[in-house]
Amino acid sequence: MQDPFFLPISTLGETIKPFCDYLSLRSLPSHIHEILFAFGVYHLIFEYIAPPLSNFFLPHRYAKLTYESKLRWNMHCASMVQSCTICVMALWTIAMDDERRNMNLNERLWGYTGAAGLVQALATGYFLFDLVVMVRYLDVFGLGMLAHASSCLITYTLGFRPIFNYYGCVFMLYELSTPFLNIHWFFDKLSMTGTKAQLYNGIALLVVFFCCRLVWGAYSSFNIYKDVWDALHLTAADKVGGNDEMMRFAGDRSLPMWLVVLYMSGHVILQALNVFWFGKMIAAVKKRFTKTEKKKFSDSDIDYFGNGVLPLSVPVL
């Protein structure tokens, strides 16, 4: 399926092509404009849209937030837009991209479609924005979030080899739980801790997290493990063929061991962390509905963090 976004800017793609060729990021020149577009949109939300709108609609709440809480609030606003947008785009691509859906083993590993590349580019643009914010406000967000942003950006960028383009949309569905997490955080800041609205949202958060990260995540991880295992046993003759259009960036169809180790170990770690975080989320939600004396919650009591292969925002509560 062709990239539904506006056509790439030829001069921009040609400018970065030597750099991309050197790093074997063959499909990146076709999507650099989308990365920069996404970066610009999230920067505008964080810097120029979320603060005045929040102050206009919630003047008594937003104005009373601390400097650190305002930064986190603005970041959650950008995260909300990103998670909703990227999930819609991923679901749309999975449903509408017939070429992607019918990919064989070679095409799932080294193939490429414009629509899947767009989803990857929008995610890369967000994590580029995320990295810039983490560097600017390192004193607020800390080294952990800086490491998260860096690892996400590096891993998404490596996908432009292209590698695992098919799976970009698959694992992007992890983000389905992120809007509920952001809403949960906003409830705390709006003095709605322990309300029925937060309870219903908390239940939805746990259910969606369990379904999209633990169930769907385990199933999808098994599929990519199997594809990598099968690819490592392909002969040179087996690697020949495939749809010419989808394989136009495939190059020599190599699968370097460092890349295998990076992606596969990341999946194992991510799945283990998902189980750990799910337990922490249950405890955090229950904490807000105990009958004991009302507690105060810090900004970091419930927040988002990410990790993993094709890393996605993963909550730590």
TrEMBL record:
What UniProt keywords apply to this chain's record, in alphabetical order? Membrane, Transmembrane, Transmembrane helix
Specify the protein's topology with respect to the membrane: Multi-pass membrane protein
InterPro entries found in the cross-reference section: TLC-dom, TLCD
User: A biological process (GO) annotation for this entry?
Assistant: lipid homeostasis
PROSITE patterns membership: TLC
The UniProt entry, under Pfam families, shows: TRAM_LAG1_CLN8
Q: Does the keyword Repeat apply?
A: no
One Gene Ontology cellular component annotation held by this UniProt entry: endoplasmic reticulum
Annotated TLC domain ranges read 68-290
Membrane-crossing ranges are: 31-50, 71-94, 109-128, 140-158, 164-187, 199-219, 255-278
Major localization class = membrane
Annotated compartments: Membrane
| PANTHER family per the UniProt record, alphabetical | CT120 PROTEIN, TOPOISOMERASE I DAMAGE AFFECTED PROTEIN 4
What's this protein's name? Answer: Related to DUF887 domain protein
Give the organism the record lists.
Answer: Phialocephala subalpina
